[in-house]
Amino acid sequence: MTADVPAPAAAPTYGIALPGAPVREAGAVYVGGLVRSQLRLAFGCLLGFLLVAGAFTAAIFVVAHAGDPVVFGVPLSWLLQAYGYYPLILVFAVLYARAASRNERRYRSLAEADAAAEVVRVARPTDPAAGAGGAM
Q: Is the pTM of this model over 0.70?
């Protein structure tokens, strides 16, 4: 009679590792760094957008209370409200997308360099006893 042998427990995975894939501590550190840099970028862009949008709103308020010139029969403050915010949104969206892509390129280059270094480490063991055939 044979007993059911439980399967060995899989190593815990961290970050975005696939189940069953080997987990490298450096990879988890790189992913954590990418997440932190993307969050920092998002909060920075949000804060910058809110400051610029607030300044733009204040400018519209000043224009509205300083005589409000009329352009093509429409008050300037109305035109600024209707069409002024879209370019701001577009500029911040493009800036964010470019910076996020730059962060991801940096992560990818670090991860690829780490993977290449791992391949070199596996190909050339650093243990001097392993190079001597293991006999002493």
A: no
Report the alpha-carbon distance of residue 57 to residue 52 in Å, rounded.
Answer: 9
Residue type, position 7, single letter: A
**CA–CA distance, 34 with 38 (Å, rounded to integer):** 6
CB-based contacts of 107, cutoff 8 Å, min separation 6:
30, 31, 33, 34
| Structure letter (DSSP) for residue 133 | T
Could you report the per-residue pLDDT of 1-39, keeping only the tens digit for each? 566 766 666 555 555 555 665 656 666 777 888 889 999
Angle at alpha carbon of residue 27, lines to 25 and 29, rounded to 5°: 70
Q: Which helix (H) or strand (E) holds 75?
A: strand 74-75
Do 27 and 38 contact (CB within 8 A), yes or no? no
